[in-house]
Design a protein that fits this description.
The protein is an alpha/beta fold. 35% of the residues lie in helices and 24% in strands. The longest helix is centred in the first third of the chain and has 30 residues.
Length: 446
């Protein structure tokens, strides 16, 4: 009865909100400041400013001609009316943009009002800007036998997300971390060559950033509407991740590709706002320490601990690789390589592949303990309930590297530090006492 009353109250509030909106929109239309058009389904309308309405808005916000701005928050720039006008042939795309603005504002409120999340993440500021601000025009210079040629290129993502996290690092020091992501609103229309071209453009722009000593983004996020069947969702992720992996090899261990429906956006933001350095500290000092007390674990002379954080001495393309090594048979050891994998994303998978290739390309690694390693077993730690099905890699794994290096993966859910949940790559719970001492027999069904 109580639930029924609450539902009726909520429906009444929604109806009242709609009525208030309709009243306000009607007043604005009478003034000639907005106009509307029906969407393709003939059930919904999209409202937008008229040219007169835009002038009024610019006057209200003191925006002068030729004024520039970042596009974040209230830092507006001046644009002509045609740059504000929503694209009639891409209304679905445009509504995803508007919905994302709204969702992110609600997510920011939730993160900073939820005491548990605030304690875990710190203070999180979420800002977004659309493609008018995220777009860039840049020079691309190529030199060949004929000479040097400079082309003007345009980079136009659908938007950009900026997370500013104020938290404490493992040593208790307050730090402010800023992470930016390019946004792509996916309606399923871009396929094959179009997606390939999109990532070729990303590749070119990332080279421009590096050549000009500018930082790379943390990731690229593809967002899709919620009305997608799971089978279609997985297939679409497969179609997007394949050209990304093939085209972005130079950046794939540094820049993450993430994919989700609109309903997944909160989980994606929580994942990205949670600093990996803090998660690794929890993983190594509160969770894995129990499992690594066995005498079979190598203790590194430099630290006296069973963990090794190595980057420069491994000549990897990415930040510190966190791993431990266990003795097996004589002169046959196993490396457990720890990576975060919470959702549909690529960076941790690409890092596992690169680490394996690096290890096998060095007959005598600089780190003595890496000699005589028989296998690298990925340990993907996560805080969501579900593991990620890695079978989609079959579709574009031409040389077998992905399946070969991921088939023995282990997953550990660290949401509850006192009771970590260990599963194999197929989602089956591991029953043996110490998964970091024996090779997991269950391998991926590929």
């Amino acid at each position: 009865m109580v639930d029924g009353e609450a539902k009726a109250k909520r429906e009444k509030q929604i109806e009242q909100f709609r009525n208030n909106c309709n009243t306000l929109l009607g007043k604005l239309r009478k003034k000639g400041w907005i106009q509307n058009e029906k969407l393709s389904n003939n059930k919904q309308h999209i409202y937008y400013l008229t040219e007169e309405g835009l002038i009024k808005w610019q006057e209200k916000n003191d925006i002068e001609k030729n004024q520039t701005g970042s596009g974040y928050g209230d830092d507006h720039g001046y644009f002509k009316y045609e740059n504000y006008f929503p694209p009639k042939d891409r209304f679905e795309h445009h509504t995803l943009l508007i919905d994302t603005y709204y969702l992110l504002s609600e997510i920011e409120k939730e993160l900073n009002e939820d005491e548990f999340l605030k304690q875990r993440l710190g203070n999180v500021q979420i800002q977004m800007r659309d493609n008018r601000y995220a777009a860039a025009k840049y020079e691309d210079t190529n030199t060949d036998l004929i000479g040097t040629k400079t082309n003007i290129k345009r980079f136009r993502p659908d938007g950009e997300l900026l997370l500013t996290i104020t938290t404490q690092n493992p040593k208790g020091k307050t730090v402010v971390v800023r992470k930016n992501y390019f946004l792509e609103f996916d309606t399923g229309e871009e396929r094959g060559n179009k997606l390939q071209t999109k990532f070729v453009n990303y590749d070119s722009y990332f080279k421009h950033l590096v050549d000009n000593n500018r930082p790379l983004p943390e990731g690229i996020i593809f967002l899709r509407e919620n009305k997608v069947r799971l089978s279609g969702y997985v297939t679409r992720w497969q179609n997007i991740s394949e050209p990304f992996s093939n085209t972005m090899k130079e950046w794939s261990t540094k820049v993450n590709l993430l994919y989700g429906m609109m309903k997944d956006l909160k989980d994606i933001v929580i994942q990205e706002a949670s600093l990996e350095v803090n998660e690794r500290a929890i993983l190594s000092t509160r969770i894995l320490k129990y499992y690594l007390e066995s005498k079979n674990y190598i203790k590194y002379a430099s630290t006296g601990e069973p963990f090794k954080f190595a980057s420069a001495d491994l000549d990897l393309k990415w930040d510190d690789a966190m791993f431990s090594i266990t003795h097996s048979e004589q002169d046959k050891h196993h490396i457990f390589l720890y990576q975060r994998l919470n959702t549909y994303e690529t960076r941790s998978i690409e890092r596992v592949v690169e680490f394996n290739k690096w290890l096998r390309s060095n007959s005598r690694p600089e780190i003595e303990e890496l000699n005589f390693v028989e296998e690298v077993i990925p340990v993907f730690y996560h805080t969501l309930d579900n593991t990620v099905d890695l079978s989609f890699l079959n579709a574009f794994d031409d040389n077998g590297d992905y399946i070969k290096y991921l088939k023995s993966s282990i997953f550990v859910n660290i949401q509850d530090e006192r009771n970590p949940i260990w599963t194999d790559v197929n989602g089956n719970r591991l029953k043996h006492g110490n998964p970091l001492l024996i090779k997991v027999p269950n391998q991926a069904k590929v």
